[in-house]
Amino acid sequence: DVQRAMRLIRAKNKEWGIDPNRLGVIGFSAGGHLAARLSTSYTVPAYAPVDAADLMSCRPDFTILIYPAYLGDETYHLPDGMAVAADTPSAFIVQTQDDRAYVNSSIAYALALKAQHVPVELHLFPDGGHGFGLRPSDKPVSHWPELCERWLKTRVVFP
After folding, report:
1. What is the pLDDT of residues 23-62, one digit of tens each?
2. pLDDT tens by residue, 147-157
3. Most Cβ neighbours (<10 Å): which of 3, 9, 61, 133?
């Protein structure tokens, strides 16, 4: 579905007033896993083409991962079938250390990007747990949207 969505957005970019060269993907938790999968597997079709939109690229131009799940283990290795390459989109990642189940996911993905010289910005906060989303709190992690906005402005919108 995410491959199809990216292709449809690119196919309808003029109608919808969207720059097809500044199209990214964002995912939280399991959605972060899906966003990372799209960013690393966009050359592998997940379905048979159904129309002209499927001739468009489904590669995101950037990736935003917020406490992504299921991306790494205690050895910081990515799951089988997920390979970061030099053309993998740059990423902005937010994670908390006390999200014990998934902190290694963010670190593993960031390390894989670094190894391929793909720009990555990883914000690792000491606390905030899993599922903090966009809710304001007294934790520094709740300021991640401003950090992401700055990253988008400097790396994506006005590179």
Report:
1. 999 999 999 999 999 999 999 999 999 999 999 999 999 9
2. 999 999 998 77
3. 3
Q: Which two tokens stand for residue 122?
A: 């990883």
Residue 159 has pLDDT above 70, yes or no: no
The set of residues, in sequence order, having a beta carbon less than 8 Å from that of 43 and lying 6+ positions away, is: 59
Q: Under DSSP, is residue 28 helix (H, G, I), strand (E, B) or coil?
A: strand
- Which residues are within 8 A (CB) of 127 and not within 5 positions of it... i.e. 6 or more apart? 96, 97, 98, 139, 141
Cβ atoms 42, 59 nearer than 8 A? yes
Residue showing tokens 């914000």: 123
Contact 93, 68 (CB under 8 A): yes
Q: Which of 78, 75, 63 is nearest to 32 (CA)?
A: 63
CA distance 109 to 89: 12
The span from the CA of 2 to the CA of 8, in Å, is: 10
Lookup: tokens for 121: 């910005």
What are the E-state strand segments in 9-117? 24-28, 62-66, 90-96
